Amino acid sequence: MRRFERVPPALWIGVALFVICWIEVPRFGSASNLANVSRVASILLLAALGQTVVIIVRGIDFSIGSAVALFSVISVMTAPHYGMACAFAIATLAVLAVGLVNGVFVGVLQAPPFLVTLGSMIAVHGLCGAMVGGVPLDSPADIDFSGLVQASCLGLPVPLWMAVGGFATIGIALRFTRFGRECFALGSNDTAARLAGIPVRYRVVSAYLLNALLVAAAGAILTSRLGSGQPNLYPGMPFEAIAACAIGGVPLSGGKGGAIHALIGVLILTIVVNALVLLNLPTLVQNMLLGVVIVGAVLGRQRQMDGRRVGVAAIG
Hints:
By secondary structure, this protein is an all-alpha fold. The chain has a single domain, classed as ABC transporter involved in vitamin B12 uptake, BtuC, CATH 1.10.3470. The protein contains 14 helices and 4 strands. The chain has a two-stranded antiparallel sheet with strand order 1-4. The protein has a two-stranded antiparallel sheet with strand order 2-3. Strand 2 and strand 3 form a beta hairpin. Helix 2 packs parallel to helix 13 and helix 4 runs parallel beside helix 6. The longest helix has 33 residues. The two termini are 23 Å apart.
């Protein structure tokens, strides 16, 4: 029984949703649809994993949607001159620069993460629009960006392997390394962490840099899928990533969470969105129902946490 108690409650919700959709939603269980779900989930999972690390250290990042747009624009602009591989590397450095700025302002200068990353989101979005004149930039005819999303390994698409690699990396880093222990300590009590000798400022900066690296990987997948530089690429990514973390059981107050929680939240969110699309519901209705699911999942998580506090208090 104790083993089942350790399983995140959101996992059972995800399993139930999957079974219901498999039975009730037409075409949900088809191989082509499940492949599409995996492709969408792989992009969101990379973003949610990075957001999880940032949330654990009591941060937040609203700039990741603009960051993937920056990756897209820079890679398409530089590819004709340096080749696709080098263009992706340059775009990754640009996204890391955004993460570094966020980390320095939040960790070193002690600025509120909400305001810092919101400002970054607006500034980078404006930069992307200025770089391409506000319109999408088509890739050159002699450069094929689709190689990344079309490639496969052991029968599975490369983007899925990238998501698996990100999941394993974050899972191991948070659970078995000094980096993870310090992140949890910082998120639980930054004053105590500082007194314990943990380099709090450096750890916050490193969390934002790791988040930026995962966002760059998501940007590479999106750019490969679209084959063009999009200044408005995936503006809802930060909100979906944060929602996935909350649904999976990562408290926004920091100090708790893990890769498995991000994965569960992403799967629940992706399954719900895919089912609503397959049911051909109007977009407005889809948004309303999705909002209800998110709020309901977060409230359920909060009630569970409150119940545990009451139980601990009663025992005490």
